[in-house]
Amino acid sequence: MEGDGGLDVTCLNKYCNSSSSSSSSSDQDRKLFMKLKLNLSGDYPRKNAEFLSGQYGINLFLIGVALMLAVARDNPSVEESHLLAFVTCLMVLQLIWMMWYILLRERRKNTRTERDVNATTSWIRGALTVLAVLSLVMDAFRIGYFVGFSSCLSAAYAVYPVVHATHTIAQVHFLWFHIKDVVKSLEIFERFGVIHAVFTNVLLWCNGVMSEAEHFMNNHIRRLSFLDSENITIVASEPVCNSTTSSSTSSLFSRGLVYLFPFNVEYHIFVSVLLFVMWKNIGRTISSNKKSLVTKSQGLTLGPILGLLALASTIAVLVVYITRIEGVLELRQSAVSMFYIYGIVMLAVMCFSGALGLLIYRADHVPLDTSKNTSRQLDTELLFGSSLGSWFMSWCSIVAVLCTESKASYRWTNFVYSIFIVLEKYLQNLFIIESLYRQQERAERSDPELLAGSEIFSVTSSMAPPFSGIINRAYETPDKTPEKEQEESREVYRCEEQQEEQPLNMKRLILKNIAVLLIMCNASLWLLPAFGCRPQYDNGLEQDIYGFSAWTTVLNFAIPLNLFYRMHSVASLFEVFRRV
Amino acid sequence: MEGDGGLDVTCLNKYCNSSSSSSSSSDQDRKLFMKLKLNLSGDYPRKNAEFLSGQYGINLFLIGVALMLAVARDNPSVEESHLLAFVTCLMVLQLIWMMWYILLRERRKNTRTERDVNATTSWIRGALTVLAVLSLVMDAFRIGYFVGFSSCLSAAYAVYPVVHATHTIAQVHFLWFHIKDVVKSLEIFERFGVIHAVFTNVLLWCNGVMSEAEHFMNNHIRRLSFLDSENITIVASEPVCNSTTSSSTSSLFSRGLVYLFPFNVEYHIFVSVLLFVMWKNIGRTISSNKKSLVTKSQGLTLGPILGLLALASTIAVLVVYITRIEGVLELRQSAVSMFYIYGIVMLAVMCFSGALGLLIYRADHVPLDTSKNTSRQLDTELLFGSSLGSWFMSWCSIVAVLCTESKASYRWTNFVYSIFIVLEKYLQNLFIIESLYRQQERAERSDPELLAGSEIFSVTSSMAPPFSGIINRAYETPDKTPEKEQEESREVYRCEEQQEEQPLNMKRLILKNIAVLLIMCNASLWLLPAFGCRPQYDNGLEQDIYGFSAWTTVLNFAIPLNLFYRMHSVASLFEVFRRV
Question: What is the top-level taxon of the source organism (chains A, B) (predicted)?
């Protein structure tokens, strides 16, 4: 009996769960129960485990959003400290899980862990570390702020930054040493741990975005009421407190916090993306094909020069805009006009570069790489998804320009600018996605057999047309399976390699220049809204059409997404730069 | 020269685009241009074509949403007739494309078109036709409404229903005869056509949801102001018109429209899902594995009986609720309490069934089918995505119950009900997804070679434990590729088949009963909100915490999603019923 049970265990987890088919059907019930017990602890189908943990994560997130919605009201019944307490609990849970995970790995140091080489690169980790350090500074400011108002603030305001700082340090350690791990043991438990970490970071991101939007709104309303003396009441962002001692330093901290928000927000969204890739990788079998990307930089002149020019003019525009927007009506209008004209020139250059890149790809037919690569797929989906915010904002602007009766000087420049925003993202996304999916050249160059094959092929293809036609038709069997197509496309590819003699030919040089230029332009377009240059708040056209609350809601959703898009496209374009 | 060009054509589109590698590099530019021209008309990489058209579709949708946002304002600058004109244009474009497509197919009648058998079933097409007929009735009502108010309504209100009716008829014809087509010619153009159709339907859905929400809100506000005499002004839903002739019949049409909205909304979302599957299938190579699903119904007793009981009690609850909710405060509170108690019982039964189904699956280990199947993957994603609305609503309720100071009798029943809603969707999604992904049994039964294989395998696996262990380990090579895993799982599967002797064994019988019960319960839970039983509007708890506008916004987003979820899960569960 016990021997039979033992057999079942071996069998169940590996290949077969009905080993004892010869047994009678009377004790089927007892067996069913045993199998059940074994299966519950044993291997659970991967697809289901994904949904099981994914649903947990989403629900965690929705609880947080429901709390935020309750807090966001004018006279909330739910206090902000409740929300902070909830988020703190999630962070503590994540800390416990991370510690457990790290200790487990430490103990199993000897067993080799599989790693996904595509998951992250050293420069992403470097950038994350910088963002994390800025987040730590922010936590320090938060503690300082609490000290100033400690008499009238809940303890949650003190516990939160302390836990957040610990969480940041532990998480960066985790990202440095474990983010590439492909988990193969205790899969279900680890899935829950990772997805918990993902959505904790997403919630922290949401919280950051909410705070940032609130601050920006207060600022905007203050400016509106100051300049146009409209009847909007200013919402006090600081607590009403009896003890006025040291409140000036606390205000200083509070003002310092504002400049650190953008970095904290980017930090959390980046971390959650990396953790999501880790989650998707759990239980996968990774085919390791680490390609050594050699970044050659000869012949890079036009791209960097234009890019630096763009970056310099951006900083100039930013400074002029921020100083003028606080001035009288004429100065403000000229600042907005200047922004749009600058934007149109910038975006036209970017559109042209993107279109040129796509045309070069059309002239140089290379089959796409269809192998599974989680982080690449996620990259493209994020690029596409985060474009939505900016596209929606642009279409709202276009509708507003067409319907408004305003005579503002920047009415039609706003229109052209918005059209260009749509077009530029459209082309840039296509360019990035095609670049990431193209099979890398020179990867199989060293294989002598392939070269021989291409030799033969190129001979046949340089024959007289009718003959070549016959041969080609012979290849084109009606029952063409995907594998065969793949094979064929590889043939194309081999024979194409033939042509490239120079280490860095003309086409690749142009592509590299385009990538560099686009990186700098995207960085410029990130810089502007991140540091307060948001003409969508200041031009007044859309606000007339949609009303104040609807339009600011759209902006509060779209601008953070757009910031993320710009950052993400810089990262993707850097990848493109290394690949082409 | 010309011969060379001709060679290029043959070569480019099939296998090679660098046939003339022996040519000098001086005329490279001219060649590049020729290739470019050829490639632009030739094969564009599939991944890019998807993004190219997908981005177009999304932008179309965003324009529509921007217009809706502008119209939704209290004193809009953009009139509703503008929105209707825009949607009408989109429908006309779709009509032209559909006609073109149908004519093209007609002309190429002789060539066999590949078809995706998974794309739709005859009962889905039947249900769609019924929904389409109700949409046509709605169009007739709209025309009647226009006739009544023709003197003060824009012409767009007349053109819209006429075009919509034509569009509905043409679209149903298209769905009946072409939705399963796998397009292989003119792929890029067809992609644009199909995605245009998808997003036209999505926009029509959005428009319908907006109208329905507006109507429900008006009704709700009317009731509030009538019962509690609150100071909310009633928004007139009928145009202010000088000609009062025949306006009473027009009001009748307007009231009739209200009951037809839910069907129209479901029609458009269903069509867009089907078209999306068609879009995903463009250019794919479908492996045809049509399985004959024989639906056996012996032994189905408990499921249908309980299901009918649920359906009957639902209708009773619906009638009582709708009559009582118009009454005085005590009657209204009792109606809300009744709803929650009924819901708890219902959901507890559903949770129990779902959990039982999952336990049976755990006891009966079958490998999951990992082959590519676009419509199945979309099904699961839609199920997951549409759960979000209801989950969010539930978490908002839970937060509200925990924070409120209200002493309402239904406070804690609301809490339990919301918890059950979350749990029920969680379990049901897992159950449906696992059911759809499990490999179907008996599919390869007839193959004698497989049976022989399983014979051998079962012999080895019934050996003494140590020996079996060795064999098993021999299979487990470290470089296990996905194909091999597939192979192995098929082995398991073969050996499992051995066990099933009866045509419909105990486990499958239970699963079938569960599926039937869940179908009826989901239909019940669709019926209630679709016909106006929405206690979330009437209980007042959440409204206290989130405020009127925020909470109604949440409901306007969540309730349509929940309606779609219930309908979609009925369809999925029917599929489960046929498979198990």
Answer: Eukaryota
> Which residue numbers in chain A have pLDDT < 70?
1-44, 118-119, 226-247, 286-298, 440-504
Mean pLDDT of B496-517: 72
Subunit contact A368:B491, Cβ cutoff 8 A: no
CA distance A181 to chain B (A): 17
Confidence of residue B297 (pLDDT cuts 50, 70, 90): low
Does residue B286 contact residue B374 with C-beta atoms inside 8 Å? no
Amino acid at B521: C
In a domain, A37, yes or no: no
| Interface membership of A36 toward B (CB under 8 Å) | yes
Burial class (CB in 10 A: 0-12, 13-18, 19+), B252: middle
pLDDT at A249: 72
Report pLDDT digits (tens) over A529-566.
887 788 888 888 888 888 888 888 888 888 888 988 99
Answer yes or no: do A303 and A284 share one domain: no
Nearest CA in chain A to B456: A19
Q: For position B13, what pLDDT does the model report?
A: 39
CA gap A10, A8 in Å, rounded: 6
The secondary structure of chain B in percent helix, strand, coil, rounded to multiples of 5, reads 75, 0, 25
User: What pLDDT score was predicted for residue B96?
Assistant: 95
B308: closest CA of chain A, how far (Å): 30
Contact of B369 with chain A, judged by CB distance below 8 Å, is answered with: no
Mutation site for B-interface testing, chosen from A80, A362, A505, A561 by largest number of B Cβ within 10 Å: A362
Is residue A180 located within the same domain as residue A269? Answer: yes
Please report which confidence band the pLDDT of residue B90 belongs to, taking 50, 70 and 90 as the band edges: very high
Same domain, B344 and B356: yes
Q: How far is CA B516 from CA B354, B384, B508, in A?
A: 12, 21, 12
Say yes or no to pLDDT of B302 above 70: yes
Smallest Cα distance from A507 to chain B, Å: 11
**In this structure, are B59 and B81 located in the same domain?**
yes
Does A77 lie at the interface with B, CB-CB under 8 angstroms?
A: yes
Q: What is the rounded CA–CA span in Å between residue B48 and residue B82?
A: 33
Span B16-26, pLDDT tens digits:
333 334 444 44
Distance from CA of A78 to the nearest CA of B (A): 7
Which of A524, A70, A559, A58 is closest to A313 using CA atoms?
A524
Average pLDDT over chain B reads 76
Asked if residue A161 lies in contact with residue A142, where contact means CB atoms within 8 angstroms, the answer is yes
Q: Which residues of A touch B368 (CB under 8 A)?
A: 45-48
pLDDT at A266: 83
| Interchain contact, A62 vs B367, CB within 8 Å | no
A348 is in which domain, residue-wise? 296-439+504-579
Greatest mean pLDDT among A342-356, B107-121, B166-180: A342-356
Count of CB pairs separated by less than 8 Å, A with B: 287
Do B517 and B412 have their domain in common?
Answer: yes
Whether residue B495 is contained in a domain is answered as: no
Residue in chain B lying closest to A406 (CA): B77
SS3 B476: coil
Number of domains in chain B: 2
Distance, in angstroms, between B246 CA and closest chain A CA? 34
- B347 shares a domain with B267: no
Give alpha helix (H) positions in A108-152. Answer: 122-148
Rounded to two decimals, the pTM is 0.72
Q: Do residues B300 and B279 share a domain? A: no
* Span of A166-180, B151-165, B356-370 with lowest mean pLDDT: B356-370
- Nearest CB to B499; choose among A18, A39, A404: A18
Comparison of pLDDT for A253 and B67, the residue scoring more: B67
Element containing residue B131 per DSSP (H, E): helix B122-148
Residues 510-569 of B with CB under 8 A from A: 544-547, 550, 554
